[in-house]
Each structure stands twice: as structure tokens, then as C-alpha cells.
């Protein structure tokens, strides 16, 4: 049995996934990236190996992805996160034709073929508004744990409209609404609606096709999912492993390399 791995070093968190040659996930890990990218990559990979009960030498090929992919010292090669998220999305949800990857610092809309190849893509090119960082600014302003934002926002009654297009000013606008007596949950739903609106703008630039798969760290936020589904008037493909989609796609590319390297030997034997 061959094993392949993908390590996705993101701006906020680092993910590692190990798969077998049947394309089944046998180990996964998620840790904060922190200031030391090399250490984050090594730590996440070590945790995934431990979960898979494998030794490092048993993994034949490792592909790195994410903004820190060139700092993965043990990786064999690198693939862009756009390609990896597209590949991972189609593997997990075969009907995927559009993917939305929302991470800590950027959001990407991706159009993919039935084989997971990238047809078109675009990403936020101005600032971090409409990303996980935007949510972080709101959480900081309201002194609410980031993990509680989504569930709190879903209890809204009269949402406010967040008009700022800049993460730097998001905190000021949130505090302004708070000073006007608006409820926290109503402010937060406004924040989530703002993120959904900007994301849909990106999606329209590549074309919104059925099915649409949501990937990246922000998939853990239930209110972002709800806001997107409300505006799009459709359900999104989301799974418990959506956070790992980039690392999964990287692992699939690694497995491609392993299987391709066997082909000449197999043909000779035949």
C-alpha cells in the first residue's frame, strides 16, 4: 500500500493530510501556523503521521501548497493552492463545478472541470475584507471568541448593514453600531452578510455553476454558510473535511506522481 501526503501552509493555520492509494484519508492534522512556517509544516505533518500510525519513510511523496509551500523543507514539490482546492473539491464532491475557498487572508472563486482541472479563477485583489481576517476584526471589536461568531450571528432579529470595504475600518464600524445600541447578534449578521456579498461578487466573475463547494478554514463558520446559501438560494457542498481541502488536493497530486512512476515498470512486466 502506497501513501501520499499534502501539506497546506496557510496564513493562519497549517493542515496536513495523508492518503493511501485508494485515495482514503488515513491521517490529518490542523495546527496554528504562527510565526515559524517551517516549524508549523513539520509539526502538522508529524501529527498526521502519528494519527495514521506511519513512519515518515512510508510516505512516498509529499506535495506542499498554500502561501508557505516553498518553506516545506521535506516536500518533494509544490502545487498552487488554487489547483489543490479545485482538485480536492471535485474529489470530495464529484459534481463540483465551482469552488469557493475562503481562508484567513484571501478568498478565491474557482471554476473547475469534471476532472478537477482549473478552468478559471479570481481572488480578492484589494484587501482582506470578506475573509477570515475580517471576521477576526469583528470578533476583536466585540470581544467574542472567533468560534462563537457564527452561532451568535444566527440569533439575529434586525441585522445592520456593514458598509466598510476595508478590514482596517471594520472594527470601527462594528463599535459604531454597538455605540448606537444595536445588538451584537444583529451586528454580526451584518458582518456575515457583507462577507457573503463580496464572495458572491467573485463567484459571478468565474460563473456560478452547480454544484458549488465551499472550502477553507471559514467553512467552520455556520453563519457564513447560511448567509451564502440565503443569497445564492442554493445549498453549498460542505463537509467536516472542507477545512482540509487544500491539503487533500495536494495529497492527490502526490499520489498521481506515485502511480505515474509505476507505469513504466508495469508496462515492462506486462
Low-pLDDT parts are 266-270
Strand order of the largest sheet: 3-2-1-4-5
**Beta fraction:** 15-25%
Task: Supply Rg.
Answer: 20 Å
Summed up, the helix count is 8
Distance between the termini: 20 Å
Q: Largest sheet, if any? A: 5 strands, mixed
Features:
270 residues; 5-stranded mixed sheet; 43% helix
Describe the structure.
The chain is α/β, with parallel strands linked by helices. It contains eight helices and nine strands. The strands form two sheets. Strands 3-2-1-4-5 form a five-stranded mixed beta sheet. A four-stranded mixed beta sheet has the order 8-7-6-9, sandwiched between helices. A hairpin with a 3-residue loop joins strand 1 and strand 2. The longest helix is centred in the C-terminal third of the chain and has 25 residues. The two termini are 20 Å apart. The C terminus is likely disordered.
In short:
The protein is an alpha/beta fold and 270 residues long. It contains 8 helices and 9 strands. It is globular and about 70 Å long.
Amino acid at each position: 500500500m502506497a501513501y501520499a501526503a499534502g501539506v497546506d501552509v496557510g496564513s493562519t493555520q497549517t493542515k496536513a493530510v495523508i492518503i493511501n492509494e485508494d485515495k482514503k484519508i488515513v491521517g490529518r492534522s490542523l495546527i496554528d501556523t504562527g510565526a515559524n512556517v517551517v516549524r508549523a509544516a513539520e509539526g502538522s505533518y508529524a501529527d498526521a503521521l502519528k494519527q495514521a500510525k506511519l513512519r515518515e519513510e512510508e510516505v512516498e511523496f509529499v506535495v506542499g501548497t498554500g502561501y508557505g509551500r516553498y518553506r516545506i523543507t521535506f516536500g518533494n514539490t509544490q502545487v498552487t493552492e488554487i489547483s489543490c482546492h479545485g482538485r480536492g473539491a471535485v474529489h470530495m464532491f464529484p459534481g463540483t463545478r465551482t469552488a469557493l475557498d475562503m481562508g484567513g487572508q484571501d478568498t478565491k472563486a474557482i471554476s473547475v472541470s469534471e476532472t478537477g482541472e482549473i478552468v478559471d479563477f479570481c481572488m480578492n485583489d484589494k484587501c482582506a475584507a470578506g475573509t477570515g481576517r475580517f471576521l477576526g476584526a469583528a470578533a476583536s471589536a466585540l470581544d467574542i471568541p472567533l468560534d462563537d461568531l457564527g452561532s451568535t450571528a444566527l440569533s439575529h432579529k434586525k441585522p445592520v448593514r456593514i458598509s466598510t470595504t476595508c478590514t482596517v475600518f471594520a472594527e470601527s464600524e462594528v463599535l459604531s453600531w454597538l455605540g448606537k445600541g444595536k445588538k451584537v447578534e444583529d451586528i454580526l449578521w451584518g458582518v456575515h452578510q457583507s462577507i457573503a456579498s463580496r464572495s458572491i461578487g467573485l463567484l459571478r466573475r468565474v460563473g456560478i455553476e452547480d454544484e458549488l463547494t465551499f472550502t477553507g478554514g471559514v467553512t467552520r463558520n455556520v453563519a457564513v454558510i447560511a448567509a451564502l446559501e440565503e443569497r445564492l438560494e442554493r445549498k453549498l457542498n460542505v463537509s467536516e473535511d472542507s477545512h482540509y481541502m487544500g491539503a487533500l488536493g495536494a495529497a492527490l497530486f502526490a499520489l498521481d506522481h506515485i502511480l505515474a512512476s509505476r507505469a513504466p515498470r508495469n508496462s515492462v512486466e506486462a
